[in-house]
Amino acid sequence: MGEIIRVQKGTKDILPADIAVWHKMEASALEIFTRAGYKEIRTPIFEATELFKRGVGDTTDIVNKEMYTFEKSERSLTLRPENTAGVVRSYIENGMHRLSAPVKLWYKGAMFRYERPQAGRQRQFHQVGVEMFGIEDPSADAEIILLALNYLKKLGLPNLSVELNTLGCSKCRKEFRALLIETLRPHYDKLCDDCKERFEKNPLRLLDCKVESCKAIFALPEVQKVIQADYTCPDCSLHFEQLKSYLDNVGINYTVNKLLVRGLDYYNRTVFEIKSENLGSQNAVCGGGRYDSLVEQLGGENTPAIGWAMGMERLAALLSEEKEEKLDIYVISNNKLEALKLAERLRALNYSVEFDMAGKKFTKQLEKAAKTAYFAIILGEDELNGGYLTLKNLETAAQIQFPLVNLADFETHTYKFISTNSSEWLQSKLSMLSSGFVM
To answer: What are phi and psi of 225, to 5 degrees?
Structure first.
């Protein structure tokens, strides 16, 4: 035997035992987002490197340190580290600006960042997210925050909190930026290397630093005085006040966090995070905000836009373990041909069915059926010779026998049998099947 090739650091297999949680996240996304008028979009997992340099920003850690970039046919390509830039590229390229506003899109899929793997964060990770184009009014901001909360509530996540901030527009940020640089300059030598690098290029990003020594500097009274002051222009201030009014009126509790800036260069005006107390220090499960200049920056028309993304690995870590879905029926038989024929006939009626292919004894087959299915059909020599089936309820151990002239007989007998020999929960479960058990 050769040496075992193992999964790469920072990546994980999603195994069958864990997949039920992922199915729940994906199905809930489709349900909640479709209900609000969002359409799914799927973009390539690699794009031109320039897209992320222009879109995400060349002062970000993502572009400077974390991208998986490779050269192919003298072109620089990058595995997507996030999906907003790709969705914006598709919005422009496919002429979606000609659609009636708002254009509402959602996505799910793998992203790639070269960073130190940690709890809920991998080098290949998955995100679910939404983007809305064409609406400047703060009602769009309110809806998109509500959409995130509705999705998380659908998943059953408790202990959620919302944090908001406004970054203003490019004009009103200039005064704040200049004053922040002036106030922090005496402390420059004590800043971390990343903050020193960002100091002149993008000082607002300093407020996003997680290094304790930098956080201590930002907590100083003279720095807090600058941070807590309101430098937004009247239009941006009105936009933020209207957003808060919307949230107040629909009963959403939130706090304003002046240190909240998010980690990407394209954000303006509204930024927000939704946090879960169950995740410890790295407790953000959702982050997003406005990026009103990004469409134009990437070659499109001037278009207001807002969106958010959630890391699905983090969500999965918060969700209670989902029970692995059982089969409807397990066929127990030593005649593999007849078992296969019966399984296929039942699958055509939308039952989930398996049968033994390994040649196990009846007792072992029945043990497996009890672990993996709700019902067992016994197709032994007596049944085959007599032209009938034995149906066993694996929840109650009740069973019946009836002739198998056609599958209509099977449906007629099982309907009465299930109604009288199953719990209400199991009856409800089986009532969701289509034409098989008609309840």
So the answer is: -60, -40
Asked whether the predicted pLDDT for residue 439 surpasses 50, the reply is: no
What six digits make up the tokens of 413?
Answer: 């007998």
pLDDT of residue 365: 94
Q: Cα–Cα distance between 386 and 380 in angstroms, integer?
A: 10
Q: Is 198 within 8 Å of 206 (Cβ atoms)? A: yes
Identify the residue whose tokens are 């299930």. Answer: 418
* Residue 61: partners with Cβ closer than 8 Å, 6 or more residues away: 194, 263
Runs of H (alpha helix) within 231-273: 234-249
325-362 confidence digits (pLDDT tens): 889 899 999 999 999 998 998 888 788 999 999 999 99
**What are the counts of helices (DSSP H) followed by strands (DSSP E) for the chain?**
17, 16
Q: Which residues of 64-99 are buried (b: 16+ CB within 10 A; e: fewer)?
A: eeebeeeeeeeeebbbbbbbbbbbbbbbbeeebbee
Tell me: the pLDDT tens digits for 120-147?
578 999 999 999 999 999 999 999 999 9
With 50 as the cut, is the pLDDT of residue 437 above it? no
Q: How far apart are CA 94 and CA 83, in angstroms?
A: 16
Across the range 256-265, mean pLDDT stands at 78
pLDDT of 428 strictly over 70: no
Judged on CB neighbours under 10 Å (0-12, 13-18, 19+), 320 is exposed
Angstrom distance (rounded) from CA 257 to CA 23: 34
Closest CA to 78 of 57, 61, 53, 60: 53
Give 78's Cβ-side CA count (13 Å radius): 27
Between residues 60 and 274, which one has the greater pLDDT?
A: 274
CA gap 68, 77 in Å, rounded: 8
User: What are the chain's domains?
Assistant: 19-168+232-318 (3.30.930.10), 327-431 (3.40.50.800)
Q: What is the mean pLDDT of residues 234-263?
A: 91
